[in-house]
Amino acid sequence: MFSILIAGGFVKVRSARAIVQSLSTLGIVALMTVGLVPASNAQAAATPDSGISAGGTVVTGTVSPVVHLSQPSAGSQWVVTMGDDGNVYAWGRQDNGAFNPASKQWQRPTLMTNASDKGFTRVIAGSTTAYGLSTSGEVFAWGSNSYGQIGDGTVGTSTSTVPDPVKVQLPDGVIVDVISASGQNVLVIGSDGITYAWGTNSNGQIGDGAVGGNRPLPTPVQMPTGVTFTSVVSGGTSSYGLGSDGRVYAWGLNASGQLGDGTTTNRSVPVEVKLPLDKTYVEIAASPLVGGFARADDGSVYAWGANDKGQLGIGTTSNRQATPHRFLFPRESRSLSSRTALPPASEQSPPKVTFTLGATTPGGRSVTEPQRPDSLRRRFLCLSE
Hints:
The protein is mainly β and 385 residues long. The chain has two domains: 2-60, no CATH class; 72-384, Methylamine Dehydrogenase, Chain H (7 Propeller), CATH 2.130.10.30. Helices cover 3% and strands 41% of the residues.
């Protein structure tokens, strides 16, 4: 319950009902102005036993709910996020049918009616497809399916869409707690310890040993011998995994050294990133078409891949960094954050600082000279309908 002071008295509000106490005539005019009292009620006469001057009159009004948004995930031109009311919200431009009510552009956070009755605990965005993780560990997808990224065994056309969430066809009994999406690819870690991928495989980013074609069903990644992944990140054309051995692995496109293995050769199975051997790595992140980042347990961060605009934050604009270099944080990093990945809920904690570096598109700060990252304060979103 809370109280609102309106010239002449207080309005106590509980849910959508307002109880008016000791309001003067001026107070009623104020209520009429904000729409809590119909204008026709203004002529009601006060009596000693009832009415405004005696108190106790119940006035019904609408109190707009405030929804707090968390875990935003960005696609190519749009954002999807969870509300604390259990619903899914999105905004931006989406031409591939993920928005419902049907629209191509939402200019503010809008309820996704097609995805708000599935009991999702987390949602993430691929380039043109949305994914939801349910409380039971099932994965659902909706939007574009032109590369089989829905994961139900079908491949759509460039113009067809899947408007409502469809269950991804994981092997029987397998549930998911770690999911990452970027571009037209998805990576998940199953409860059986196997990492699965689906979507396009144009550069071997599925990790099944082949290159080309689409994988419309979750396909096991060929894991390094004796290693399972504890975290995965999709970089769209390249994929990354954090091994149970504390090492980092990568596969897919490597034209700019995105795999960090010392070459620019594409890989269709995971290969180890050439990070310093005297450290154990605890966190990974990726930037599509740029490369990968890894944080060691001592707080040091390493980066590799494309760097023609200083994207890696290593103090140079020398491109194609095929082996990792120390990332020049203003201070030792406590955590990395990748927009494309969601760790297990039990491991999530609100990051206090995020950093930006390299060239940006219009609307952001343009960084044309190599420098250390700029610290940004993280903002929290609040939606009022």
